[in-house]
Amino acid sequence: MALWLSPHFDYQGITIVDFRPETRDRFTSLVQEALAFISEKDPNRYRRVLREIKLINHLPRVTGAQYFRPSRVCYIDEQVFQAAKSLHGNVGALACVLVHESVHGELFTRHVLETSRNRSRIEGLCNREMARFARRANFNIEGWVEESATPPSYGQQLRFAFRRCLEMLRHDLFGR
Ligand SMILES: [Zn+2]
Predict the structure, then answer these.
(1) What residue numbers bound the domain in which 83 lies?
(2) In sequence order, what are the beta bridge partners of 76?
């Protein structure tokens, strides 16, 4: 698997991978800082993160993050969190999202499978748990939760993927 050929970092049992050398150091430290933030502010929720997330991979996502089972992979779009830096602080923002994704993981572990019918209820549950974490960590996520509660449409996802592919190609070919 290409993953194991690419440099990766282990943080308390979670593997952090970024296939792109230009962003690797920045991405790896952001993820490590976010994990340390959760561990410091909320040890119980941190245990859930360690249990439910095994691999964090840097990939563009329209929602900023996406979680997959059974592999316990979490895809994170670093750009989204760098953009949040001035507004909320990107470490805290990523910490909140990792807590959110770990709830998806726990539900799967408990055999609660996501369907189109229960999706918004599950999303609400993960967001409420994320909000509880944010309150505990004294981190302001106002205005965020409503945005992330509506899943992006297929058209939105396509447009996003197209735009980000172009950006990456331009960057890789022309270095800008
Ligand atoms: Zn979610």
Answers:
(1) 2-174
(2) 58, 65
User: How far is residue 155 from each of residues 6, 55, 62, 71, 169, measured CA to CA in Å?
Assistant: 32, 28, 11, 27, 21
Residues 32-65: b if buried by 16+ CB within 10 A, e if exposed: bebbebbbebbeebbebbbebbebbbbbbbbbbb
Instruction: Using the mean position of ligand 1's atoms as its centre, give its distance from the Cα of residue 172 in Å.
Output: 31
Q: Give the model confidence (pLDDT) of 107-152 as tens digits.
A: 999 999 989 999 999 999 999 999 999 999 999 887 665 555 556 6
Ligand 1 centroid from CA 5, angstroms: 30
Distance 67 CA to ligand 1 centre (A): 8
Provide the number of structural domains found in the chain. Answer: 1
Q: Please give the single-letter amino acid code of residue 160.
A: F
pTM of this structure: 0.84
Q: What is the 23 CA–ligand 1 centroid distance (Å)?
A: 25
- Å from CA of 104 to ligand 1 middle: 6
Residue 126 token pair? 């993960």
Cα 108 to ligand 1 centroid, rounded to whole Å: 12
